[in-house]
Design a protein that fits this description.
By secondary structure, the protein is of the alpha+beta class. The protein is 42% helix and 16% strand. A five-stranded antiparallel β-sheet has the order 2-1-9-8-7, with helices on both faces. The two termini are 30 Å apart.
Length: 326
């Protein structure tokens, strides 16, 4: 499970003992990219990936600068903006917020799924937003932080391709309006109609919250290096990513007792994503962002989930081989 110990033993790794010639490194990176692309094809998805050694900057890239739909990964830049605003004294993380039962963003998890009014602090909303991808918690936090502050934080961190256009409620409203539907089952039923997918703003990175795999790993690296916010804020963010409950994507590629995987998923119709950090006991730490889109309009597609872990593992193993000079 993400952020916890898992069964199995990780392959023996070593601290960097040397460097490979540039040509050898480039050839190895190309070979890894080819293997990752093949894994995406076999899983029936279009995929984009960036993986980077947080401490050396070495990378593996597959379409790393392509614009991608964030879906619930938008909650990562929102979390960063929340902690930056708190550090500036512009909001109090312990401030209590009431979320009325009749006026909350819908969703399958957390506060979104509850039946009664809920009152909790902003920082607890942030916890639910990351650990179980709670849409109601995220939208309540976004209302308090402000959309402009989220995008300003991204710009301040040099993430020029990262733009958040709204929260979960807006995504839902846009989907229903574009599909002429009243709920997700109806959208799924109509998704393979000619021209339908192209009409959905939520699936078009030019018309919804977006980023690139490279910018998402840059943001994660900044959090792990205490650069995205003050150190205590970055530590709080790392804790939440480590508590995420979903084990079926990124962490599925690292089923080892002593490897820690921290992440945030994003799911929207045929879009399945996860960004996160993989940490080894020898000190190696790797930011990984995998964004996929299924070629089939099917809600349950295990191979599309699993390939996120497979692609991440291929990328991280390549980075570790490069670092050890093998």
């Amino acid at each position: 499970m993400t952020g916890t110990q898992r069964t199995g033993t990780q392959p023996t790794g070593t601290q960097p003992t040397g460097t490979q010639p540039t040509g050898t490194r480039d050839a190895a990176a190309r070979d890894t990219a080819v293997r990752i692309e093949a894994a995406f094809r076999d899983a029936g998805v279009t995929g984009f990936l960036h993986a980077a050694d947080i401490d050396t900057g070495r990378e593996v890239a597959v379409g790393a600068d392509a614009p991608v739909v964030l879906a619930s990964v938008f909650k990562v830049p929102l979390l960063v903006a929340f902690h930056r605003r708190a550090a500036e004294g512009l909001l109090d993380p312990t401030e209590q917020v009431t979320l009325p039962a009749g006026d909350r963003t819908s969703g399958p998890t957390g506060v979104s799924a509850l039946l009664d009014d809920v009152r909790m602090s902003l920082r607890d909303l942030a916890c639910l937003m990351i650990t179980v991808s709670d849409n109601a918690a995220a939208d309540a936090l976004l209302d308090r932080v402000g959309l402009d502050a989220v995008n300003a934080a991204a710009t301040a961190l040099g993430l020029r391709e990262t733009v958040v256009t709204g929260g979960g409620r807006q995504l839902f409203d846009d989907l229903m309006a574009d599909a002429g539907a009243s709920g997700f089952p109806e959208v799924w039923a109509r998704l393979d109609e000619p021209g339908m997918a192209a009409r959905l703003r939520a699936l078009d990175p030019s018309r919804t919250s977006r980023s690139t795999p490279r910018e998402m790993t840059r943001l994660l690296a900044a959090i792990w290096r205490d650069e995205a916010a003050p150190p205590d804020g970055c530590a709080a963010m790392r804790r939440l990513f480590g508590l995420q409950v979903w084990p079926h994507r990124l962490s599925s590629g690292f089923p080892y007792d002593d490897v820690l995987v921290s992440g945030k998923t994003g799911t929207l119709l045929t879009v399945r994503n996860e960004v996160g950090v993989v940490e080894y006991p020898d000190g190696g730490r790797y930011a990984v962002a995998v964004f996929t889109r299924s070629l089939l309009p099917i809600a349950v597609l295990p191979q599309a989930d699993a390939v996120i872990g497979t692609a991440a593992r291929l990328a991280v193993e390549a980075l570790r081989r490069t670092a050890s000079g093998r």
